[in-house]
């Protein structure tokens, strides 16, 4: 079959040609362009100057209808379907107006209720670490109704409804569910699976909320599946990562348009990467503030000369991810970060020299739940990595970064607890343990892992503490983490939206899913 070049494009990520060979649509820096192809024997060199910018907000997918010839694309949950000729006629200035596009948009929505337990639950006899100040209630009872905490207090003061399912948690500890502020779950792209195995392991370890700052589109879909009960998972926080140079921002209006688009898609967070010039970063921060959503910065603090340098703490970012990798922080920088009230999530476990050893062990897999749960014990971990005293080691870079994080917290700064690993569940608890090892009190680090995480995301009115009216995201522990911090990983039961999950059952479901995935892979 004879082939010929009909167009050449530069700096284009992807392009498609209509069936009649009259038009080509392409993506450049996540913006959708349309150009008309001419029936000539020689190829044309097409640039943005002879193309129409159809959408400056990026698209999730786009195609030409082979029947009608219409150009179709999605932006959030809006479908656009317009014939190329109409685009060329209506957008003669070189860019389609927002008014024109809004007239063509078709909103697609599926309404489904959030999954909550319809039964009234009475959790009786447990020690309650409420995170309301330093309150500890011995022999406490929690009443849960319609996925929220109805009543909480000492068992003698709580009237239990006759219709309630009563569960005896004597000798157990109940506290708010853990919140991982920086976790990565690289779910398969371009397809949604009915159960993604890594999310089972996080839930088994009592992590009821996850913020994945990679911001991949499929995680937003999984977030909705988790809310409606189609997916057994922790709560997934919608996020969008604005990486440079994959997007084009020429002015404040461009920045505002991007932020508005992601808010429309459900994001409550924007993440920006290191290489954006400071002026553009300031536009994005202003836009995020205008739209009342949080914005965090991915930091490459290998030196003070990077784009995202100490000025990040002057400019109004609500958070900064990763360690400042210049050694220990001096007091002037500590005080700057503390006064900025920026949430600094060091993710020390990702700097842990021996973490790759555990990842290799973890990926080898084991079906025995009890063997795997041996990793809940700090002594087992220290033996594996040949550290006698601390998980991170006395002289490692991780110890240096974690020490600065603890000093920042003690100086009045905001620090987050995040695992930053693609190994689910347990590394998050190592991050908790390491902060305690480096000088935070047990109650303080538990507070940061719960209420602190909720506050960093602006969700403290719904999550992070055991209070009347808040969402019933709780974890039931077999031991008391105020006596031994390693009891955070000794999980008996996890409760999310009032739905109960036995930790052991989640482990077993995880290993079963892993075995199924392995068999499917071998059969292909």
TrEMBL record:
Residues 173-500 form the Amidohydrolase-related domain. Transmembrane segments: none annotated. The lineage of its organism: Bacteria, Pseudomonadati, Bacteroidota, Flavobacteriia, Flavobacteriales. GO terms for molecular function: hydrolase activity, acting on carbon-nitrogen (but not peptide) bonds. This is Amidohydrolase family protein. It comes from Christiangramia oceanisediminis. Pfam families: Amidohydro_1 (PF01979).
